[in-house]
Design the sequence.
């Protein structure tokens, strides 16, 4: 304000010293100057419209400043624009090779574990107390099975960054995997003491408590995580699952119903309704989830399953056929279709659906075993329910045998083969000594 007053006062003084034409020239000059500054102000305001434009302006103004490139790289990393972030981290390091944080962040963006380890170790050579580099290197070593060194790195990360909650979770997780539960519990408690506002730490401790059989305390920490961060959907889902596993379905539903409508929340809520026999509510929730993610086949499959269970088999069949038309290799679709046909008494069509699933030739031997087992069961049931298939035990035995080859330890499969043996003997006794199995 004072600057503006001085300019106006000086302008008036000059006008009194010059003639009429001089005053006109001064006025025009002043107007041009005002226009120039106004244009510059508009340009500068555009720079402040977003964080990115502000960072870009900094790079244009100070292209040889490492800190400017580092800050812009952090922004790009947060936006998921990793190739650009890598370029600006590398530029920052060219300008200032001893930038430990740039080395650490570069390590988090590389896909090569060896290269990432190199960056983390270089960062630690520059700054031995860089708690983020210690944390990242510790996690990397943990994933490589180098647990002793990983433990030391994570301990150092906590020592030099006691308010860094993720380090407590990682170290406690390592101890839990090693069955060192008392030490893991101690680390979690220490983390919560130093980072009481970390919702993730409370949630992770809740998971640990569930795994160690302390569901009551787990519920308390899930609730604390939600209090600290009302949008902590993971903690909400975990709490809902815990309540559901404790047969507290009303409480589980109450928690799930409070959650913003997101697919990762809607699907467990739909499962809760389905498992408690509330099919209409389950259908409503699954339809809402399907509207949010129309290409998610698992949601549509769950929706079709609820329809079938609710007795709306025509709708379920139509929906399942639509899914198969989009993905001919959808084994679960064929299995659901088989169940729908069985429910309607169409056993031949049910068998045909299972045969199509088997022809998909899934690579997982366990899934193959389940399919052969299902077909064996289907043939057995058809022998009992439909006289047209009486005596066709050889086909059933073939599929049970294939299933046993893929899953030799299955007690259920062995029990079914024993039942098949009894049925064959019973049928042989009814038909006399001339009965022989087909080969």
Sequence:
């Amino acid at each position: 304000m004072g600057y503006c007053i001085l300019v106006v006062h000086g302008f008036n003084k000059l006008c009194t010293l010059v003639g009429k034409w001089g005053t006109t020239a001064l006025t025009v000059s002043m107007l041009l100057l005002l226009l120039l500054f106004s244009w510059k102000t508009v340009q500068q305001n555009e720079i402040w419209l977003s964080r990115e434009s502000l960072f870009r302006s900094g790079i244009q103004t100070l292209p040889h400043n490492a800190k400017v490139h580092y800050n812009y790289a952090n922004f790009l990393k947060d936006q998921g624009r990793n190739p650009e972030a890598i370029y600006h981290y590398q530029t920052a390091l060219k300008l200032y090779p001893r930038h430990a944080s740039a080395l650490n962040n570069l390590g988090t963006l590389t896909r090569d574990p060896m290269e990432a380890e190199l960056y983390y170790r270089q960062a630690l050579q520059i700054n031995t107390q860089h708690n983020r580099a210690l944390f990242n290197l510790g996690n990397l070593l943990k994933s490589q099975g180098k647990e002793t060194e990983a433990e030391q790195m994570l301990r150092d990360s906590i020592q030099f960054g006691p308010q860094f909650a993720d380090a407590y979770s990682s170290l406690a997780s390592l101890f839990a995997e090693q069955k060192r539960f008392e030490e893991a519990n101690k680390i979690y408690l220490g983390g919560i003491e130093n980072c009481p506002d970390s919702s993730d730490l409370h949630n992770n401790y809740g998971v640990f408590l569930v795994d160690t059989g302390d569901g009551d305390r787990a519920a308390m920490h899930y609730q604390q995580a939600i209090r600290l961060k009302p949008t902590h959907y993971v903690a909400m889902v975990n709490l809902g699952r815990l309540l559901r596993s404790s047969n507290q379905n009303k409480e589980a539903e109450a928690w799930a119903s409070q959650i913003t409508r997101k697919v990762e929340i809607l699907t467990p809520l739909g499962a809760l309704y389905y498992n408690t026999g509330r099919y209409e509510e389950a259908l409503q929730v699954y339809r809402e989830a399907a509207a949010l993610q129309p290409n998610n086949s698992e949601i549509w499959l769950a929706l079709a399953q609820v329809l079938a269970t609710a007795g709306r088999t025509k709708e379920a069949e139509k929906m399942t056929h639509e899914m198969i038309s989009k993905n001919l290799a959808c084994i679960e679709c064929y299995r659901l279709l088989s169940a729908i046909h069985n429910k309607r008494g169409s056993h031949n069509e049910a068998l045909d659906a299972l045969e199509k699933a088997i022809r998909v030739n899934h690579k997982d031997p366990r899934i193959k075993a389940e399919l052969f087992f299902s077909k064996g069961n289907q043939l057995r049931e058809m022998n009992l329910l439909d006289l047209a298939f009486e005596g066709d035990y050889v086909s059933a035995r073939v599929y049970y045998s294939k299933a046993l080859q893929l899953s030799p330890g299955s007690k259920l499969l062995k029990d079914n083969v024993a039942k098949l043996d009894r049925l064959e003997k019973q049928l042989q006794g009814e038909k006399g000594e001339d009965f022989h199995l087909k080969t």
